[in-house]
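chain below, 182 aa
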Amino acid sequence: MEHRRDSGFQLEKELLDKRLAGGKLVAILAVDKNYGIGRNGEMLFWIDEDLHRFKALTIGKNLYMGRLTFESTGPLLQRKMIVLSRHETVGADETIKDKAEFINRLKMDKKGILIGGAATVNSMYDNIDYLYLTEVDKSLPADARIKNPLENGFMLDSESDSIYDEKNDFNYKYVIYKRKDF
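prediction:
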């Protein structure tokens, strides 16, 4: 899997679009070595290249998330923000209060991507077909973690070479896991 910022992640975006159009449920997250994604309601790290990739893959999409994730990210331009919460979420494009409805809407949405948080992703693990992870080769203090994909019904689909992030002084790679049963 080749990832180059100057190519705008076009090939990866085209494959993602085909998977979504084919009815596959996709989640996109950044994780540390222990699958940590956050601490105290904030992301664990900010990787410029990864943020560029996330934007390239999600522009024009409907992003589904839990309330805490929305509070951490806020509205993102050119993307519809759909939040699972018991209460109306100010600034979100739509709030869905019923978890079953949230899952059903995401499954039926040909432009829908799940982006977090940990509780939402973990509760939907059996419904997810592909995990697009940015895996950081470092353990960080985290209070929000997703399940280990390889121990929970997924297998490796593809991965990039390791990339060094000078600003954060760690290596990371882009990894795609797919559900084993297809």
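Confidence is low (pLDDT under 50) at residues 2-6. The radius of gyration is 15 Å.
thats it, cya
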